[in-house]
Amino acid sequence: MPSAEPTQASVHEPDPVRPTKEDPIAEAGSELIGGPIGRRARFGTSWWNPVRVIALVAIGMFALGLIQKAPCYNGGWFFGASTQYTHACYSDIPHLYQGRGFADGLVPYFDRFAGDMQYLEYPVLTGVFMQVASWLTPHSGTIQHQEQWYWMVNAGMLMACAAVIAVCVARTHSRRPWDGLLVALAPAFALTATINWDLLAGALTAAAMLMWARGRSVAFGVLLGLATAAKLYPVFLLGPLFLLCWRAGKWRDLGKAVAATAGAWLVVNLPVMLFAFDGWSKFYTFSQERGVDFGSFWLILAQNSSDPLTTDSVNTLATLLVLLCFLGIAILTLTAPRRPRFAQLAFLVVAAFIVTNKVYSPQYVLWLVPLAALARPKWRDFLVWQACEVAYFLGIWMYLAYTTSGNAHKGLSTDGYHWAIAFHLLGTLYLCAMVVRDILLPERDVVRQAGDDDPSGGVLDGAEDRFVLSAAVASARRDEALEGPQVSWGKEE
């Protein structure tokens, strides 16, 4: 007969965290769907588990984002430069179908196209994504008809990426699946999803974070290498990982992750580097040569200066500024009273790169949303930040409408646009400040308040510190070691 005694797994298996019980905003919002989840609710006992619900919500929000682009789909992209701005439905995708040679059957990186750009200015894996969408697009009818198809095909592929991001976030913190709703319901996520192809790198990065949380260092590295082959920013996650593994002494896992990242990146890039170097290098030379652009504080400085800085000067200053931010994050990591969570540092390094960059495009919010949901799953702060991003999303299109409407001046003036830039920069910095506060005061961290240490940290979760810069932290660790085994970080040590 089966034993009536509970198994060890059932004794130590922690209950899932219910945001409606710990977050006042989540509790208030739950009234729209019947109120907070009850104490007798069971997870995973029916088809409607949290992950499936979050995936469907993400797809539904993405569909609403597609509907928001309807005015442009019905002519705004083709028959009036300002229409796509006044309706806030601009997308790069239909414009680049012809502008980057896909309509003419040109092969990215290998074939030149007319114009100053000459080669596709995107990383290789993004170029492959764009090419696959072109293969699936009917190359018949008017060019406007083809561009509509191309946008729809890309939208379908990007929808899959959005669902992957939401699901990966929901599964990364195994006790907090409902935090994935932060991604699924993020308004800026839905509004900017089809401006460009950023969701591809976002999906690969989210999957990499999930693999690291599961302790699969090689799989993490492979996915992060692929993400870096689609966009540059994912490689910055190796910096926080290095610092955390240094503090915890997990060098072997770090080495496997770095090697797998480099290997996966080379597998994608090396063939194009060898046979079409000029086309392959276009992304990197374009990033270096482009001037100050939309969304950055550098643009505010340039448009308010009689003698604006040169591109080379901005490149140098922006590089120094982001390196200073990275140094600050490194010092924070090695001196914090408790080792920061991987997701916290991942959010901070990507945010530092974006805020100091010479361009802060509206779709860059897609890079931060999944990391923010893992770093600080607090609805109030998340929604404050999202409000700033939505305001900027409207602000940039109204500013472009103002600059393209001639003497009519319909839209937002330059001064108004500068305020919009400041608003979304301050929103990002506000969320960064909240994450830093959680690191300095870990008892304020909602993830750790629930009894976890670092659920996205994989081998770092519950690990002992091996190296710290703070004498006070080192002394506290020695005292813990002298006291013997104890329950710490929500785990038995």
TrEMBL record:
It is a multi-pass membrane protein. Residues 12-23 have a biased composition (Basic and acidic residues). Residues 1-10 have a biased composition (Polar residues). Pfam families: GT87. It is found in: Cell membrane. The keyword Translocase does not apply. The keyword Membrane applies. GO terms for cellular component: plasma membrane. One of its GO terms (molecular function) is hexosyltransferase activity. The chain crosses the membrane at residues 47-67, 149-170, 182-212, 218-245, 257-277, 314-336, 382-402, 417-436. Its main location: membrane. Residues 1-23 are annotated as: Disordered. Keywords: Cell membrane, Membrane, Transferase, Transmembrane, Transmembrane helix. Belongs to the glycosyltransferase 87 family. This is DUF2029 domain-containing protein. It comes from Streptomyces roseirectus. The lineage of its organism: Bacteria, Bacillati, Actinomycetota, Actinomycetes, Kitasatosporales.
